[in-house]
Amino acid sequence: MSRRHALALLACLTHVACGGSSSDATSGGGGSTTTATTATATSGSGGDGATSTTSGGDLTCPIGELCLEPPASGFQVTTVGDAIQPGEDVEYCEVVALPGGPDDTYFVEGFELAMTSFSHHLIVAAAMPDSATEQAITPGMKQKCYGADVFGGDITGVTGSQKPHHEEQFPPGVGKRFKGGQKLIFDYHYFNSSSSPVKARAAVNFKTVDASMVTREAHAFGFYNLGFSVPPNSTKSFSGECRFKHDVMVSKLTRHTHQWGKDFSVAYAGGAKDGEHIWTTPNYEDTDHLFAEPVLMKAGEGFRFSCEFANTTAKTLKFGLTASDEMCILFGTWFTPMIGAPEEDQDCITD
């Protein structure tokens, strides 16, 4: 994989943007559904029978069904989805829209999402209001992709998960802001390892609060190790290190590997805590570390992370885009220590 391609992929996986292939484009008016409960806006009227247990452990759904109730305060957005054939490994990008109109502003303190069985990941991005990208897309558009900017580059991250069920809650005073009618792009990747077609669908709950409750915006970072190579039938570990460009508060860390990923460890890099162990997770389904309190990371400090892979296949595993490749990525959620502080991108590639 070229470094140029990797940089585009990096932006995608940190829920910002990603270049991808395009084929089989479809479009339509609407199609996706939005269920509103008591969405808080600043103005306007916005407002086959088998079961499968998600890796989140707290939802049991029939295969092909979504089991996610709308939030007590906020709204739910759902894709139309597509049928995934047996053995198919495919990624789609689908456009949906938030409820309300341009006079509505929503302040979101957290998300909850769900996907149907055989999902690999869901990444949700938002087209920037009044941008060329937003003007070019309509709800119901859907096509195969390797990332949301198959529809254009004027997008920003919303949420995402490698698990079929996931909840994300920001620290007090931290959140995200959206406009009524704003268009979202759901990037969903599925690998159907069953012998029957399955329905790929996803839903996201937006948990809203009053505007006065959000003073700083949550952002995502991605620290990437692209330079690993695991020979067939072997186990190897690889380390990477990245530093922040300015002072940030970090509230959550998330690992991202595929099925051959084993121990994933994180330690502080630089500063008074240099080398201090933070977290080790033993497999690719145990993905999140939530700090008891957000930690202040000074400019020039960062994280050292290592990925161990047990390659049980007959091919060499390297960084790649499909479920038969591997990845070694440390994601995280950050916000500024002070209102009005710089909000520069914090992504990093290490070879």
Can you describe this structure?
This protein is mainly beta and 351 residues long. It has 2 domains: 3-213, Jelly Rolls (Sandwich); 219-350, Jelly Rolls. 5% of the residues lie in helices and 49% in strands. The chain contains 2 helices and 28 strands. The protein has helices spanning 3-13, 132-136; strands at residues 23-26, 33-36, 51-53, 60-62, 74-78, 82-84, 89-97, 105-115, 119-127, 142-144, 155-161, 165-169, 173-179, 183-191, 198-200, 202-209, 214-217, 219-225, 229-230, 234-243, 248-256, 261-269, 277-281, 288-297, 302-311, 317-318, 329-335, 348-350. The strands form 7 sheets. Strands 2, 5, 8, 12, 13, 16 and 17 form a 7-stranded mixed β-sheet that branches. Strands 1-10-7-14-9-11 form a 6-stranded antiparallel β-sheet, with no helix packed on it. A hairpin with a 6-residue loop joins strand 3 (51-53) and strand 4 (60-62). It starts with a helix and ends with a strand. The relative contact order is 0.19. Residues 1-30 and 38-58 have low confidence and may be disordered.
